[in-house]
Amino acid sequence: MNGSPSRRAIPAVEKILQALAPTSLPRPLVVEVVRQELRRIRAAASVPDSPALVRQINHELALLQRSRLQPLINGSGIILHTNFGRAPLGAAAVRALTEIGSAYNNLEYDLGSGSRGPRAAYLERSLALLSGAESATVVNNCAAALVLIVRHFTRKKTEVIISRGELVQIGGGFRIGEIVEASGARLREVGATNKTTLEDYLRAIGPETALILRVHQSNFFMSGFAHAPPNDEIAKLARGRRTPFVVDLGSGALVATEKFGLAEHEPTPAETLKRGADLVCFSGDKLCGGPQAGIIAGKSRLVAALKRAPLFRALRCDKLIFAALEATVDAHLRKDWAEIPALDLLQTPVAALRTRAEALVRQLAPLNLRIVETKAEIGGGTLPRSVLRSIALEISSENFSPNEIATRLRQATPVVIGYIVKGRFRLDLRTIFPRQDALLAQALRACLTNSSP
Ligand SMILES: *Cc1c(COP(=O)(O)O)cnc(C)c1O
Fold it and tell me: Of 81, 180, 216, 248, which is best to mutate to test ligand 1, by the most ligand atoms within 8 angstroms of its C-beta?
């Protein structure tokens, strides 16, 4: 700060633009940042000197640049991290994005008849097969699927029956109960937090019942004095009262998770439908391992009705989502896990992680790295009890505190994210792709050997 020079001392936009550090941001955005900063100092009591002003604007531009979507190296050990974009896509899905995105395509065109055709016909058919369903369709995300379902079934009757043990909050402020109410339905809560019986459902069901909704607890679990009736019993009750029974599965594991060596069993769409649910919905970007999407599977009649609902049009997906999801679903049908990175990372043997850690430690010899055994998580609100044995690099430095290491690595290119446990900075290798190891080594070397901040 430079005391309070007169208003005239505020430099012109053009002069500042010439003094700024080179940036790849589009010029109109740069100009806007400069103008905004000038407006701010005009309103302030004192005007900084020119170099300070330029430094400040350079800083703002760097922050703006860093707020752009960019890839990062995820050393958190959390495979499906909502903050980091959940499931990374496989190579075939990425190829499909490029091919479909960069050319015209048959999104709504029937190549047989040469006239308008249905959207996502292939995808709906393969998703139905994978889900053991008569029929399936896709919307924006699982929350959208839930809104569509609740809105559709509560047109005439208004009540949605749900167990108090299933009024889940998923991630940042997303509450199942609020979603249902925002869809215009009335919640009819049954049972207690830890115990709901079939009689509770039986007592609640009545002329105003539009739907029985079951929500997979996803991100938490109950143990001890807890009970909920199995799906087939609820399904039988619902069928007797001609009431649709819908299960929100959330993560939607299409493969039985024990097959990947996990301790917990995540209910699959196929087994849930087999036990009598009329419809299930689940996310495309959790254990399904594809792009953000909400998949609805079940009875043909109900899926068809949902597709005719006016709201469906507002929730439909873009061609790019279809392209990436088609490739992901193909990989599921072929059990080609290498094409579904989320499932591939889940299965990496600890020995392979250790070998990579040892190579990194050798490569970065002068740095203070230690190999530690850790536990990685699935994340994304799925399988809260499943921990995966994993390997992390623990990094310490004479020059930097763990917090400073974390900050410096967040500012690296590419960005590297780790975590601090018991005052030590760690990078879990389970969620770092082997192809990123060289870049990671580079970033570590640059951040930890250069002591100037
Ligand atoms: C994650 C989750 C959702 C929300 O899914 P999105 O695809 O993120 O909209 C809904 N229900 C359950 C049970 C979930 O676990």
Answer: 248
